[in-house]
C-alpha cells in the first residue's frame, strides 16, 4: 500500500497568478518526515525534512506543527492522498464532515529507488482531442464489461482534460502541453500493475488509423499480435502476473482470442492478442 499524505493547497487570489494553486503534502514515514511541494496537478517534488531542522521531540509532533504553520500561510486542507512513483497526487480523499484531520502515520518505508522499465510505449495523433476521444471510447467499452479495468481520471495542470489512471498508475503524458500534434514516448517501470499493458493494448486496438499506439518490451521488441504466453516476461516485470491472472480480464476486454492451431495430440489451446 502506498504511503498516505495530508494534502494542503494554496490558491492565488490576485495578480498574474490569480486562480492558480500550489500543493503541499506531508507524511510521517517510519521515524522520518517527508514533504512534497509543487503546482497543483503536476509532479510534487519530494523533500525529506532533516531531523536537525526539527523543533519538536517526535516526528508526529513536528509534522503536526508544520501543517498548522502552512494553514497560517493561507493554505487550505484538501484531504489525504497517495503519490505515483513519478510524484503525482492520486487517490485523494477529500475533507468531509466528521473527518479527523491530521498527518498520516506510515509505518513502512516505500522503495524509492528508480526502477528500470518493463516496457516502452508511444502515441501518435493529430491532436490531444483525437487521442482523448479514443480514450473515452475505451472507457465506455470497459464500463460495460465484467471483469473490467480499474479506470479512473485525474486532472493534470496544463492539460485541457483529465488523464487516465489504471489501477493507480497515472498516464500523465508528462512533457506534453495538450496542444498541437501528439508525439509522445514513455516507459512503464517494473513493478507497475500488469493491467497497464492491457490498457495500452486496448488503446491501440481502438485507435485505428486516427491514433497510432505502439508498445515494446524492455529489450525493444515490439509487442504485436503474438501469443499471450509470449508476454509472460513483460507481465512478470510489471506486476508479477501470470497468464491465469491476466487471461480473464484480457478475454473480457477482447484483447485475446482462443483457438486451436493445426492438429496437436494434446489439443492445447493458445491465446493470441487481437
Q: Could you give the count of β-strands?
A: 15
Number of domains: 2
Radius of gyration: 22 Å
Number of helices: 5
SS-based structural class? alpha+beta
The largest sheet is: 7 strands, mixed
Report how far the terminal alpha carbons are from each other: 33 Å
Give the overall shape, derived from the CA principal axes: globular
What percent strand? 25-35%
SSE pattern:
EEEEHEEEEHEEEEHEHHEE
Question: How are the SSEs ordered, and which strands pair?
Answer:
Layout: E1 5-11, E2 21-29, E3 32-39, E4 45-49, H1 59-72, E5 76-83, E6 89-94, E7 105-106, E8 117-125, H2 128-143, E9 151-154, E10 163-166, E11 169-170, E12 182-189, H3 195-207, E13 211-217, H4 232-239, H5 243-252, E14 256-259, E15 270-273
Parallel strand pairs: 2-7
Antiparallel strand pairs: 1-2, 1-5, 2-3, 3-4, 5-6, 8-12, 8-13, 9-10, 10-11, 14-15
Tell me what you see in this structure.
It contains 5 helices and 15 strands. Residues 259-274 have low confidence and may be disordered. Strands 1, 2, 3, 4, 5, 6 and 7 form a 7-stranded mixed beta sheet that branches. It has helices at 59-72, 128-143, 195-207, 232-239, 243-252, and strands at residues 5-11, 21-29, 32-39, 45-49, 76-83, 89-94, 105-106, 117-125, 151-154, 163-166, 169-170, 182-189, 211-217, 256-259, 270-273. The protein has 274 residues and is α+β, with helices and mostly antiparallel strands. The protein folds into 2 domains: 5-106; 117-259, no CATH class.
Amino acid at each position: 500500500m502506498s504511503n498516505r499524505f495530508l494534502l494542503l493547497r494554496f490558491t492565488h487570489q490576485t495578480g498574474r497568478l490569480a486562480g492558480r494553486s500550489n500543493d503541499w503534502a506531508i507524511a510521517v514515514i517510519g521515524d522520518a518526515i517527508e514533504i512534497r511541494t509543487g503546482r497543483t496537478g503536476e509532479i510534487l517534488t519530494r523533500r525529506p525534512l532533516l531531523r536537525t531542522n526539527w523543533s519538536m521531540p517526535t516526528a508526529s509532533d513536528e509534522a503536526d506543527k508544520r501543517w498548522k504553520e502552512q494553514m497560517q500561510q493561507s493554505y487550505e486542507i484538501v484531504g489525504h492522498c497517495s503519490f505515483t512513483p513519478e510524484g503525482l497526487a492520486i487517490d485523494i480523499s477529500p475533507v468531509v464532515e466528521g473527518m479527523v484531520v491530521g498527518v498520516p502515520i506510515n509505518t513502512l518505508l516505500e522503495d524509492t529507488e528508480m526502477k528500470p522499465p518493463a516496457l516502452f510505449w508511444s502515441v501518435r495523433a493529430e491532436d490531444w482531442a483525437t487521442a482523448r476521444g479514443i480514450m473515452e471510447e475505451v472507457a465506455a467499452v470497459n464500463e460495460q464489461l465484467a471483469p473490467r479495468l480499474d479506470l479512473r481520471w485525474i486532472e493534470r495542470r496544463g492539460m485541457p482534460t483529465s488523464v487516465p489512471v489504471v489501477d493507480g498508475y497515472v498516464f500523465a503524458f508528462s512533457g506534453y502541453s495538450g496542444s498541437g500534434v501528439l508525439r509522445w514516448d514513455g516507459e512503464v517501470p517494473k513493478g507497475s500493475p500488469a493491467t497497464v499493458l492491457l490498457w495500452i493494448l486496448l488503446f491501440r486496438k481502438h485507435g485505428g488509423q486516427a491514433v497510432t499506439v505502439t508498445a515494446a518490451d524492455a529489450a525493444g521488441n515490439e509487442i504485436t499480435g503474438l501469443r499471450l504466453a509470449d508476454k509472460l516476461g513483460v507481465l512478470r516485470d510489471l506486476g508479477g502476473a501470470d497468464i491465469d491472472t491476466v487471461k480473464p480480464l484480457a478475454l473480457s476486454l477482447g484483447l485475446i482470442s482462443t483457438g486451436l492451431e493445426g492438429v496437436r495430440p494434446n489439443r492445447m489451446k493458445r491465446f493470441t492478442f487481437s
